[in-house]
Amino acid sequence: MSFQRCELDYKKIVRDGYNKVSHEYYGDSSCDLNKGSIEWVKEIMDRFPAGSRALDLGCGCGMPATRLLAEKFEVTGVDISEVQIERAREYVPNVKFIQADIAEYNLLEENFDIIVSFYTIIHIPLEEQFDLFKRIAGALKPGGLFMAIVGYTAWTGTEVNWLGVEGATMFWSHEDRDTYIKWITDAGLFIEWDRFIPEGDSGHTLILAHKP
Ligand SMILES: C[S@@+](CC[C@H](N)C(=O)[O-])C[C@H]1O[C@@H](n2cnc3c(N)ncnc32)[C@H](O)[C@@H]1O
Asked: Is residue 106 part of a domain?
């Protein structure tokens, strides 16, 4: 596959964007474990014993997925936005939170039982995504699970004043469902299932895969 290199600093756009919209995306009053990823995470929690190691890539403010995982597992959360990480440290004190770009974050080999990433890989320039899946596959222990929200239809673009916040620009970049199935499989993971998760006029793909 071949991609053109990005000229704009899309990582800075996304980081600055989430720094600005953090509270609009997940308000303080909605921190009651009430979002969709709760049900998805619950589906995999029983598959590992307490104390297993979990990683949330693009953990946001730690709500709701990181907090739920932390009820049973030893969790690390990584996010590019300092505002999101600051809030996450407040909401979920028993988790190690790191502010970093997940496309560059040093993923140690066979280090995690569970890796989740909800609505985050869709913010990473396409040319970096396959390499990230390979590193995720490498970082899972054999039998480990990867659960992620990725794209359903291919689209790359930006939106200004996102979530009604003046001056907040956001960037998304995603391939279609079939490409993600291929990339994740080619990265060395076995896809257990995928589901269409509707949102507005379109939607995303939720994928569950394991490392053989
Ligand atoms: C849509 S939010 C999702 C947050 C959380 N996973 C959830 O489901 O509520 C996307 C998050 O990904 C983070 N993010 C985007 N690109 C990133 C990158 N390259 N590295 C780390 N985090 C990133 C953003 O800062 C933001 O907190």
From this structure: yes
Encoded tokens for 174 = 């995603």
Which residue out of 10, 14, 87, 104 has the highest number of ligand 1 atoms within 8 Å of its CB and is therefore the one to mutate? 14
Please compute Rg for the chain using Cα positions: 16
Task: Work out which ligand 1 atom sits closest to the CA atom of 102.
Answer: 20
Q: Assess whether the C-beta atom of 60 lies below 6 angstroms from ligand 1.
A: yes
Domain region containing 156: 11-28+37-210
User: Hey, CA dihedral for 24, 26, 31, 36, is it positive or negative?
Assistant: positive
| CB distance 119 to ligand 1 below 6 Å | yes
Percent of the chain with pLDDT over 90: 90
pLDDT confidence of residue 7: 60
Report which of residues 26 and 89 the model is more confident about: 89
Tell me, what's the pLDDT at 31? Answer: 53
pTM equals 0.95
* CA-closest candidate to residue 55, choices 95, 25, 91: 95
